[in-house]
Amino acid sequence: MKIGLVGAWVGSGLLVGPTTIVAQPIEMTPQQETSIYTNLAKTTVAKPPPASFNASVGMHVPADVDLYEIPSDIAVASIRRYLYTVLYDEVILVDPTTKKIVLVLTQPH
Predict the structure, then answer these.
(1) How many domains is the chain built from?
(2) 103 is a domain residue
(3) Per-residue model confidence (pLDDT) at position 18
């Protein structure tokens, strides 16, 4: 069963639990969220965002940052349209059209 992520509005994003901020609801279960983070966080990124980059929903990703397609083995339909990058302990999903961050996943607690 899929559940919609629900939370309270904080700034321009939606705060969901202690580890996820989204611009709009992205349907996934907590288990899917953990699986996505675990699988994508181990990616070695050729050109990550600069160390000073503070990823938050709605921010533009610098043009020189490498963005990657979601691997086909991640079977969560609600994120297939996005690209991603990794910065330290964050997995950052980006809208490929606007280059804006739509989701920030951090290490599950």
Answers:
(1) 1
(2) no
(3) 42
What's the 3-state SS for 37-81? Answer: HHHHHCCCCCCCCCCCCCCCCCCECCCCCCCEECCCCCCCHHHCC
Assigned domain for 89 exists: no
Q: Are 2 and 28 in contact (CB under 8 A)?
A: yes
**What CA–CA distance (Å, rounded) separates 8 from 87?**
25
**pTM to 2 decimals?**
0.74
pLDDT, tens only, 32-44: 899 999 999 988 8
Contact between 93 and 107 under an 8 Å Cβ cutoff? The reply is: no
**3-state class (DSSP) for residue 35:** helix
Q: Which residues contact 96 (CB under 8 A, 6 or more apart)?
A: 67, 81, 82, 83
